[in-house]
Amino acid sequence: VHLVESGGGLVQPGGSLRLACVVSGTDFSNVDLGWYRQAPGKQREMVAGVTRRNHINYADSVQGRFTISRDNAKNMVYLQMNSLKPDDTAVYYCNARRFEFDEYGQGTQVTVSS
After folding, report:
1. What is the pLDDT of residues 32-54, one digit of tens each?
2. Spatial separation of the C-alpha atoms in residues 3 and 84, rounded to whole Å
3. Pairing of the two strands 17-24 and 2-6
4. Residue of 68, 69, 75, 67 lying closest to 29 (CA atoms)
5. Which residues make beta-bridge pairs with 19?
6. Are 92 and 32 in contact (CB under 8 A)?
7. The pLDDT value given to residue 70
8. Quick one: which of 37, 41, 66, 85 could link to 62 by a disulfide (CB 3.0–4.6 Å)?
């Protein structure tokens, strides 16, 4: 299973970014997906998840600002991030998991700063 993230960058507070992740090497429609992040000096935390049945959950800190979605035809998962705050600064990782694997991508840096 191989995951590649894209879409990170530098954005001002209040701005938006859209992260994308392409997943290969597995039956994408039968995989649970998620976005995680890790800020300097902190543990990796779950940001948003979408199951194979399209059940969605968010961390309280991003609820109402971030939107996760998946496109099974393109093997893609997205994270639309609006109203970004400096506390959202982190490396963001795409995650794909089934009972036999739990894989992450290499990460993409998101920096929110004026």
Report:
1. 999 999 999 999 999 999 999 99
2. 24
3. antiparallel
4. 75
5. 79
6. no
7. 97
8. 66
Q: Rounded CA gap, 76 and 78, in Å?
A: 7
Ordered per-residue pLDDT tens for the chain, 114 residues: 999 999 999 999 999 999 999 999 999 999 999 999 999 999 999 999 999 999 999 999 999 999 999 999 999 999 999 999 999 999 999 999 999 999 999 999 999 999
Residues 32, 1 contacting (CB under 8 angstroms): no
If we measure between CA atoms, which residue out of 31, 29, 90, 30 comes closest to residue 59?
A: 90
Q: Which amino acid, one-letter code, is at 35?
A: W
Residue 35, SS3 per DSSP:
strand
Q: What share of the chain is helix, strand, coil (3-state, %, to 5)?
A: 5, 55, 40
Question: How long a stretch of residues is the chain?
Answer: 114
